[in-house]
Amino acid sequence: MSMRPAHAADLAPLARLWWQGWRDAHLPLVPKALVARRTLDSFIDRMAIALPRVRTLGPVGAPLGFHLIKGDELNQVYVDEESRGAGVATLLMIDAEDRLLEAGVTTPWLACAIGNARAARFCQKSGWTRVRPQTVPTEIPGGWYPLKIWRYEKALAQPSAWTARGASELSESRSFAQSATEANERPEDRPRATTWTPVPPTLPN
Q1: Per-residue DSSP letter, 27
Q2: What's the CATH number for 3-169?
Q3: pLDDT tens per residue, the chain (205 residues)?
Q4: Strand (E) positions, the chain?
């Protein structure tokens, strides 16, 4: 899989992916007043504005995830529900860090909702450090909502070791998926090796 810029055909599926991912991660954690403003339409509007800066991967019209950078902030990283655990998030993070470095950002930051343990583990695994809690203005229709978050930062250098690690994890996840598929096949469904057996000549009676 290779990273690419988002296309117009990705807008609707990316917005739905973002909306669903946000709900999965944040519904139990953020105030109800913010949840009420996080409608699917609001994500469509936000994605329409952000699309020129969005990087994604997967077929056009069926993206597997995306990241969005705003200045020195890695603003969003989301993965499609069916692609979670398959190495997609690692590829997104590698690409985002490379893009930040290309832009001259050596200490980027990202916001993680307080209590989002899964995202926090991924940040730490990726080499990001939690530096402090912080209140940030988050977009809502018609304005901003103050949200308290964990702020993570990372000192970036040439990410050769991290890139190699990401490639290794992706390879392992593909091998695991292939093994699982093979294990679920019935014996009669598996392709059989063809063995050539010489046919004896017909003997006269």
Answers
A1: T
A2: 3.40.630.30
A3: 689 999 999 999 999 999 999 999 999 999 999 999 999 999 999 999 999 999 999 999 999 999 999 999 999 999 998 878 778 999 999 999 999 999 999 999 999 999 999 999 999 999 999 999 999 999 898 899 999 999 999 999 865 445 555 555 555 544 434 444 444 444 444 444 333 333 333 333 3
A4: 3-5, 54-57, 65-70, 73-79, 109-113, 129-140, 143-153
46, 22 contact by CB (below 8 A): no
- The contacts of residue 65 (CB under 8 Å, 6+ apart) are 17, 56, 57, 58, 77, 78, 79, 80, 83, 88, 89, 92
Judge contact between 17 and 66, C-beta under 8 A: yes
Supply 113's token pair: 């909702």
